[in-house]
Amino acid sequence: MELYRMTAEELSALLEKKELSAAELTKAQFERIHAVEPDVQSYITLTEEEALRRAAEIDRRRSEGEQLSKLAGIPIGIKDNLCTKGVRTTCASKMLGNFEPVYSATAVEKLEDAGLVMTGKLNMDEFAMGSSTENSAFQKTKNPRDLTRVPGGSSGGSAAAVAAGECTFALGSDTGGSIRQPAGFCGVVGFKPTYGTVSRYGLVAFASSLDQIGPLARSVKDAALLCDLITGRDPRDTTSVPGDGSNYYGSLNPEMKGKVLGLPKEFFGEGISDEVKSAVLAAAKVYEGLGATVKEVSVPLIDYSLPTYYILSSAEASSNLARYDGVKYGFRAAEFDGLVDMYNRTRSEGFGSEVKRRIMLGTYVLSSGYYDAYYKRAQKVQRLLRQSFDEVFAGCDALITPTSPTTAFKLGEKLSDSMQMYLTDICTVSINIAGLPAMSLPCGRDKEGLPIGLQLIGNRFCDQTIFDVGAAFEAEFGRLDVAL
Amino acid sequence: MITKSEIEHLAKLSRLYLTDAERETLAKEMDGIVDMAAQLQQLDLDSVELTLDGRRNVLREDEIIPSYSRDEILKNAPVREAGCFSVPKTVE
Hints:
Chain A is α/β, with parallel strands linked by helices. In chain A, 39% of the residues lie in helices and 13% in strands. Chain A is globular. In chain B, a hairpin with a 2-residue loop joins β1 and β2.
């Protein structure tokens, strides 16, 4: 089998037995990238030279008998909103077009320590704002399952690269579905950990109380392996929770007897396509076949999650993006008349239209006279939503829902209608509002052959349950092969 | 309805210049989004308290630890001068 089709687990076994060297693997990986990248365009920056150098170093260390981590030598792509020391980190924005961080994100540092080989930086919606990766200032990534369609977003480059065999797995970030929705559209596994389990240090902030870094991979086990590398308390992120990290991979237990899975009826209503609905309900049947109990449940406030999400995330974004002033780093307009004019021109020329829209909306909901009506109310709904998930999880181990209302849509289809674009996140945003862990994994294809995503939602800090439940389904259903 | 003058006010607060075309589309789009946000008015939230859920501020010791050099910090500045960030004259 071609190396680019294999999972990290399989590659790791070959590397450990010295049947394959990291240098050979890296070389093969870049051959694959050069072959399909003209069509897919998932990378903003490739780091081939550095990757080959690192791979050679891993091989040298292994030949000297050093005990390396299980994932040493495996190629990984990184979403371009994670800081990488000395490697351009753009957030797919003109504003950070030339930004070269002087430090790496904690998650990236941990991967480097474990000997993974970074292939490059992956495309995304500008500042992670979007659901199709079409808001990138640089290029439009295509869905490898159908090149006329979007890969989803905002981690569209990460999902497309994994699906196209352009890296073994990737890191993405998820603020309202940005790992799960593109994973669903591209037919790969995407996992958003419980808020606080992965340090956000070095992740360019969009909405700090919702953002979380997580893996995209070709199998549930690969996602678990990668997640285990990046979890754990980091003193540089005060919202990261105490603990030394996880061992999801080593603790995997796909036994479904005795598990209770909930089907929240609000996720199967209007707007969800029939094909998606029936694929997810078929997945529920698979779980029953494995001995789990499946029952209908209700999370009554879900209908309010989209407005709540857009109020909270835009408010935080407008505040987080105030730092782009053309002084400390990033873009500065060429001509201006005085300081305020410089700020205004820099921001007007440096940000794309979706980013401006979110800044304006966030400024609106935080401005005097509207703060109580919008922002404060949204915070209260957040409180209630967390409570209603708590109540549901008192009687369930996990929830089963669609990841998105439809499969991947056509490039350009929703670009001119922001409300239609926002509605594609209807199944995912509530999970970030409540800080829960959730996974998307393939559970079928529609009549055009496009992957359908199954979303598994767990209670806070029950990430292990989601890996268990995901692995159980994958063992029955199988994985989707690499596209193209 | 979000008026054009409200858009102009928000743009000023956001430190953004908008073209006439941008002002027009933004007014329309924000109307749609604000209509959606107005759904929250349907809920009775008076009894919901905004306490911190038992969460606490996390503080650390105030210690001197290795930091970045001046050159590193200035590396990405669009304009620097004499080891400083350079900005347009702010006081006449």
